[in-house]
Amino acid sequence: MMETKNIMIVGVGGQGSLLASKLLGHLLLSNGYDVKVSEVHGMSQRGGSVVTYVRYGDTVYSPVIDHGEADCIVSFEALEAARCISFLKDDGVIVTNTQQIDPMPVITGAAKYPENLIEKMKATGAKVDALDCLKLAEEAGSSKAVNTVLLGRLSHYFDFDDKTWFASMEAIVPPKFLELNKKAFLLGKNA
Questions:
Q1: d(Cα 154, Cα 7) in Å, to the nearest integer?
Q2: Which candidate, 4, 132, 156, places its Cα nearest to that of 71?
Q3: Which domain holds residue 28?
Q4: Based on the structure, what is the number of domains in the chain?
């Protein structure tokens, strides 16, 4: 029996976190796992926080991840990763974009964006795999490919080869964006 694995995908609305969770769900399902994907909360239309849970294993009963249960947190933005760190298992990993996206309180001047978030997360003992995904996405051809750059980075923590990841991309990503996304995935993987 395989124990259920838990992945949290966190970000800001409009960054493509739903496509990332859909792709991950497809990948795991097509490789024989029972998978539950659920978007938990967020004002995705307004640049608010978006959290998606992806749980997989032999049999998954609940789509929800509790504090201390996430094997991996995939984050589109450093502050979102820091906000969710309490969900991470002791031996879990945070795969995060280093990009800073100011939340509403920072935009309005009511708060300041916290400094040195990556260092602060590492100081808690968390394993943090941080990468400038925006730079790599732009290198691939579109700032919108941050999601597949992150998945490329995440692929280090799975036993699937590129061909398997690409098969799920071919099933989910519109054909005209396929090559771009494959390139973004490889840039993230090989960074």
A1: 10
A2: 4
A3: 5-190
A4: 1
Tokens encoding 69: 């249960």
Domain CATH for 115: 3.40.920.10
b or e along 172-183 (b: 16 or more beta carbons within 10 Å of the residue's beta carbon)? bbeeebeebbbb
pTM of the predicted structure, to 2 decimals:
0.93
CB 139 within 8 A of CB 106: no
* Sequential pLDDT tens for the chain (191 residues): 888 999 999 988 777 888 899 999 999 999 999 999 998 766 555 567 889 999 999 999 988 899 999 999 999 999 999 999 999 999 999 999 999 888 878 889 998 999 999 999 999 999 999 999 999 999 999 999 999 999 999 999 999 999 999 999 999 999 999 999 999 999 999 99
What is the DSSP-derived secondary structure letter of residue 8?
E
